[in-house]
Structures are given as C-alpha cells and as structure tokens.
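Repro case for the chain-ordering regression, as requested:
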Amino acid sequence: EPEVTQTPSHQVTQMGQEVILRCVPISNHLYFYWYRQILGQKVEFLVSFYYNEISDKSEIFDDQFSVERPDGSNFTLKIRSTKLEDSAMYFCASSLDAELEAFFGQGTRLTVV
Amino acid sequence: QQQVKQSPQSLIVQKGGISIINCAYENTAFDYFPWYQQFPGKGPALLIAIRPDVSEKKEGRFTISFNKSAKQFSLHIMDSQPGDSATYFCAASSRSGGYQKVTFGTGTKLQVIP
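-- result from build under test --
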C-alpha cells in the first residue's frame, strides 16, 4: 500500500539552527501539506502546497518557515532559525485531490534544545 | 470561532462496550467533519467522515452522529475492542477554506480494556 514517508523520524537541533524535514508523498498525489502536533496538544495545520506554490498557510507558518518541492518526489519543510517552541511532531500529508482524503506520514519529532 | 472542542480528554471502556466521543464547533462555514485515529508513533489516519446534509453515517462498528442545529457531532464505537485503543481526533473543514485545512479537536485517548 502506498504511503507517505518522512525522514528523519527524530531530529534534535540547537536553538537558532536551521532544520529541514523531508517527506516523500504518495507518488501520484498532487496536494501536499504540513501539520504539527506539540506534545499532548492537537494537530495544527501549517501549510498546503499545489503545483509548486503555497495554496494556503496558517498564522503559525511565519517567515521562519518555508516549503519546497526540490524534485519530483520530495517535499521539504525548512525552519530557518529554530526556537524552543518549534519542538513538536511534524506531519507531512498528501492527497490526490483537494477534496479527497489526505494520507499522513508517521511524523518527524523535532526537539529544539 | 475556528475551534473544535472535543471531550472527554481520555476514556476507558471495557471490551464490548460503546465508546462515545463528543465534539462541538462554532464556525457555521464548516461543511466536512472527519474523524482521525492515531496510534502511538504514527500519523493520524482518516477513520470516517460526514457532511452536514446527513445526520448519521455508519461504517462497520463506527458511527458518526451529526446535529447541525446544535453544531455538535459525535463518534460512537460499538463493540469496542482492545485494538481500538488509540487517540481519536474530531476535525472540521470547509470547501471555502480548503478541505484539507483541517481544524482538529484536542483529541481523546481511548483505552479499551479486556
């Protein structure tokens, strides 16, 4: 069964450092998303991406965040200068169509120290 | 107004019992209400979803009840099994806001004991 895969599963970084979280969406999917889940809290939408551009973003997705589809298979989330409060589980998701089910990856746990 | 309120925070049910999780929303623009199931170390997975033109949707042991006038919806898990032990999130989104810009509830940790 096709699945969304994310790497790494866990990343520890020092405050102020840049991190790149990587995702390989399901191959024929056209819509890509990032969500985050701070430990013990709800899952929050960050950004949606379609045809090489951001289609929507939340207020959480400020100038410190960027997304990119560097090639035909990868979808990345970059945090330029990490803060302690960026520590969370980051989920990538993809869907074939904006109105169809989005499939989530297993997440990357980011710990900022 | 974008919030989705979910209760209870945790739930313990005996095997064979009925698990009930409740959610409420405020934004009347929401027109898609999915439920996600999340196992430890995994991402959320869509379990069942409903649109407000129906009051109930059933898939196997899982049923969503929807009350549009009260702006409430609930998940019922019949004949709960230990394998159902997971965290359940209700959620909502809208066509105008983008169906995948999902607002999640705070989650309910369900434990089904043998």
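Ordering looks correct now. The radius of gyration of chain A is 13 Å.
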